[in-house]
C-alpha cells in the first residue's frame, strides 16, 4: 500500500515537472497570457482543478505582491501534490528562462555597447511599458481620495529619502493607515475555498517573509557583505511588486543601476532579452545577478526575487478565506497596495524617466510606443523590437 502510494506520488511529481516545464518553454506574452495557458492546460485539458478553484487561486495571486502567474503555478502544484508539488511546479515553469538568461548574461558580459542607439531605444521602451503598468495599477489600487493620498505620501517620501529602510517604513505606515481608514470596508459577498496545506507550514512561511523583509536590511548595514546586500535588494524588489513582472523594472533599476552595481546599458539589454524568452519576466533578475556575479549570482538573484512570492502563496493559502473576508485585514492590504503605487511612481521618475527622455524626439518615440502597447494592443516583444529600431534611427537623425 505504501509502495503504491509512493509510486503514485512520484508519478504525480514527474507529471507536474513535465507539464510545467513545457509551459515554461512555450508561455510567451506575460502574466495575463500565462494565466490563459494555465487555464487551458490545468483546467480544461487535464482537469486537475475546477473553474471555481482556479478562479479562487488567481484571485489570491492577484491579491498578493509578486509574479501572479508564478504564484498560480505554485498553487496548482500544491493542490496537486502538496508543498513539494508546488516547488516542482515552480522549478519547471521558471528554469528554462533562468538558463537562457544566465547564458545571455555570460555571453554579453564585457561587450562595449554603451553608445548603441538600440540601447537608448530600450530605455524608451522601458518608459512606455512601466508607465502603462503603473497607470493600470493606479486605476485599480487607488480609486478613492484616501488611497490617492497614501500613494502621494509614499511617492514623496521615497523620492526625497532613497534608502532601503524608507520603503519598509512607508509600507508599515501605509498598512497602519489602511487598517484604520478601511476597517469598515465590506465585500458584497463572502467566498470560501479549500487548499491542502497545513496551517503550521503556512505560519512558518509568513514569519519568514516578514522576518527577512526586516532582518535583511539590518544585516546588510551591520555586515556590509556584498552577497547579503545583493540578496536584500532582490528580495525587497520581489516583495513590493503588485501587477506583474513589468512593474519590478523600476525597483530593480533603482537598486542596481542607481547604485552603480550594473551599467544602464547592460540592464536594458537584459530587459530586452527577458521580453524575448518565455516564462516569468521576474527572471530578468537572473540576468542581473549573472551579469554581476556569474552563474552563482544568477541563481542567488533568482531565489531572492522569487522567494517572497513563494513564501506568500504558501503562507496565505489556508488563511485566504479569513483574509479576504476580514474587513480590517483587507483594509491594511488596501493601504499597502496604494503605497506601492507611490513607490513605483517615484522609481519610475528616477532613474527611468530622467535617464531616458532627454530630447523631444525621445518623448515622441515613447508616445508612439505607448500608443502601440495601450491602444493598438500589440504584444510587448513587438514594442521592444520597435523601440530598438526607433532608438537606432534616432542616432541617425
Automatic annotation (TrEMBL):
| InterPro entries listed in its UniProt record | Chr_Tranpt_l_chain (IPR014047), Chromate_transpt (IPR003370)
Mode of membrane association: Multi-pass membrane protein
Q: Which Pfam families match?
A: Chromate_transp
Protein's cellular compartments: Cell membrane
- MF (Gene Ontology): chromate transmembrane transporter activity
What are the TM regions of this chain, as residue ranges?
A: 83-106, 118-138, 150-177, 197-218, 225-248, 268-290, 297-320, 332-350, 357-375
Main localization (coarse): membrane
Record's GO cellular component, any one?
Answer: plasma membrane
* Keyword set, alphabetical order: Cell membrane, Membrane, Transmembrane, Transmembrane helix
Q: Which family does it belong to?
A: Belongs to the chromate ion transporter (CHR) (TC 2.A.51) family.
Descriptive protein name? Chromate transporter
> Which lineage ranks, top first, belong to the organism behind this chain?
Bacteria, Bacillati, Bacillota, Bacilli, Bacillales
Amino acid at each position: 500500500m505504501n509502495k503504491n502510494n509512493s509510486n503514485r506520488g512520484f508519478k504525480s511529481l514527474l507529471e507536474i515537472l513535465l507539464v510545467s516545464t513545457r509551459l515554461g518553454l512555450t508561455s510567451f506574452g506575460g502574466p495575463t497570457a500565462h494565466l490563459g495557458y494555465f487555464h487551458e492546460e490545468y483546467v480544461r485539458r487535464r482537469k486537475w482543478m475546477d473553474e471555481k478553484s482556479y478562479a479562487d487561486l488567481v484571485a489570491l495571486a492577484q491579491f498578493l505582491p509578486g509574479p501572479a502567474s508564478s504564484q498560480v503555478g505554485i498553487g496548482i502544484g500544491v493542490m496537486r501534490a502538496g508543498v513539494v508539488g508546488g516547488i516542482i511546479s515552480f522549478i519547471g515553469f521558471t528554469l528554462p528562462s533562468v538558463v537562457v538568461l544566465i547564458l545571455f548574461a555570460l555571453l554579453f558580459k564585457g561587450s562595449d555597447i554603451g553608445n548603441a542607439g538600440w540601447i537608448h531605444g530600450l530605455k524608451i521602451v522601458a518608459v512606455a511599458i512601466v508607465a502603462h503598468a503603473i497607470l493600470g495599477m493606479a486605476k485599480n489600487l487607488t480609486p478613492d481620495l484616501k488611497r490617492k493620498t497614501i500613494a502621494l505620501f509614499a511617492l514623496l517620501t521615497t523620492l526625497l529619502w532613497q534608502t532601503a529602510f524608507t520603503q519598509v517604513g512607508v509600507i508599515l505606515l501605509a498598512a497602519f493607515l489602511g487598517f484604520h481608514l478601511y476597517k469598515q470596508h465590506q465585500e458584497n459577498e463572502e467566498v470560501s475555498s479549500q487548499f491542502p496545506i497545513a496551517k503550521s507550514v503556512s505560519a512558518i512561511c509568513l514569519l519568514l517573509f516578514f522576518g527577512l523583509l526586516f532582518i535583511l536590511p539590518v544585516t546588510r548595514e551591520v555586515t556590509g557583505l556584498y552577497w547579503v546586500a545583493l540578496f536584500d535588494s532582490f528580495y525587497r524588489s520581489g516583495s513590493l511588486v503588485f501587477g506583474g513582472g513589468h512593474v519590478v523594472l523600476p525597483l530593480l533599476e533603482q537598486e542596481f543601476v542607481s547604485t552603480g552595481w550594473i551599467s544602464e546599458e547592460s540592464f536594458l539589454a537584459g530587459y530586452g532579452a527577458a521580453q524575448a524568452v518565455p516564462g516569468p519576466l521576474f527572471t530578468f533578475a537572473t540576468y542581473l545577478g549573472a551579469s554581476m556575479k556569474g552563474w552563482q549570482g544568477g541563481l542567488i538573484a533568482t531565489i531572492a526575487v522569487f522567494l517572497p512570492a513563494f513564501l506568500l502563496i504558501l503562507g496565505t493559502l489556508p488563511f485566504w478565506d479569513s483574509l479576504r473576508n476580514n474587513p480590517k485585514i483587507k483594509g491594511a492590504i488596501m493601504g499597502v497596495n496604494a503605497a506601492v503605487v507611490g513607490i513605483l511612481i517615484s522609481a519610475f521618475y528616477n532613474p527611468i524617466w530622467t535617464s531616458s527622455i532627454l530630447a523631444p524626439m525621445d518623448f515622441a518615440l515613447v508616445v508612439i510606443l505607448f500608443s502601440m502597447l495601450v491602444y493598438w494592443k500589440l504584444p510587448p516583444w513587438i514594442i521592444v523590437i520597435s523601440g530598438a529600431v526607433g532608438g537606432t534611427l534616432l542616432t541617425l537623425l
